[in-house]
C-alpha cells in the first residue's frame, strides 16, 4: 500500500513544487532548501499537510 503524499511549498512564492511520502514518526514538519523553478533560486521549502 502506498503512503500518503504531502507537498513541499516554497516559503517565498508559495508554489508547491515537490511531493514526498508522509512519515508518521516525524514529529515536526520537514524544512529543506530546494530549487524553486518559479523563483529561479534555492529557497526554503516547508512541508504542508
Automatic annotation (TrEMBL):
Gene Ontology terms, MF aspect: structural constituent of ribosome
Keyword Ribonucleoprotein: yes
UniProtKB keywords: Ribonucleoprotein, Ribosomal protein
Keyword Ribonucleoprotein in record: yes
GO annotation, biological process: translation
Residues forming coiled coils: none
UniProt-listed Pfam families: Ribosomal_L33
Record-level GO cellular component terms: cytoplasm; ribonucleoprotein complex; ribosome
Membership in a protein family: Belongs to the bacterial ribosomal protein bL33 family.
Protein name: Large ribosomal subunit protein bL33
Native species: Lapidilactobacillus concavus DSM 17758
